[in-house]
Amino acid sequence: MEKPVAKSRRVVLALQGGAALGAFSWGVLDRLLEDQRLEIEGVSGTSSGAVNAAVLTYGMIGNNRDQARELLGTFWKRISEESEKRRWGRLRSLRLLGPKILQIRRGDVFLEVMSRILLPYQYDPVTMDPLRSVVAETINFDLLRSSKTINLFINATNIATNKNRVFPRNEISLDAVCASCCLPFLFEAVDVDGKRYWDGGYMGNPTIYPLIDNCSSRDVILVLTSNVESKMIPHTSAEIVNRVSQVSFTSALMREMRAVNFVTRLIENGFVKPEAGLQKVNIHIIAPPTEDPEFDAAKNFNADWSYMTSMRDRGRQIADTWLNDSFKNLGHRSTVDLEAMFG
Question: What's the rounded Cα separation, in Å, for the pair 202 and 253?
């Protein structure tokens, strides 16, 4: 007797940033797109998550899942190729020295800062190449803005106002995507409509509320590139800087999730009437294993193709496990303990 086909579920995705660790999210997306039971209604992304979100949405024009999967693979391959060209062309000797620098236990903050400035110099601080050029060759933004297949939102931080700017699909441009990825210690601020922006991770990594406000699905799948918690107490300057960066880039997510948890408790305890218009949201998380050294922030700029494909494969594997364990809960309940994780 054949098993009954599982009912399809409509979901929205929120993609965290993490530079090269975005290749992990690529693997997660590749596996989710493979599952015909999932209907992706909306996607929100920050930094490398914004790039993944934009490429995914563009590839899904016409509901073509295979096209979206192929386009994501092509994008990450091109990023690796162009990064390698620049790395070898400009700082060949530094590339050979780089892994040794990262292994040094250093108490001098100056060495830590210098290594973080010099090692990623395969990127141009003004043009943001190769990221800008590869995104431009991958996405036709006129077609992206006019598409209606998936609701898309990316965010950036307005330097002057210290506010989060959320770009909906019909306002997303190459500059907007670059603004969401603009780490201030690496790149010049990006001008969008006369305003200057830095990386969106400072205000939302990723931003959840546009999905809740503009999509009908109540199932939000958070695709994270690092864990919220860390059991390791940092001691070296490298460990301290990495942890400070993690705390900074997850603080906005923590605030949003605490708000979601608060509203959820109000609804469950009957303090909010149905006519108030608030609905319970189910939260699900696909994330790397806790304290996995392969997801260390020091590897954010590792553009080697072997590393990226290993991250993709890890993402696929973890997403596959999540689907096997948690798909049945979509439409019914959260698969994370909001109070324990974000309360």
Answer: 10
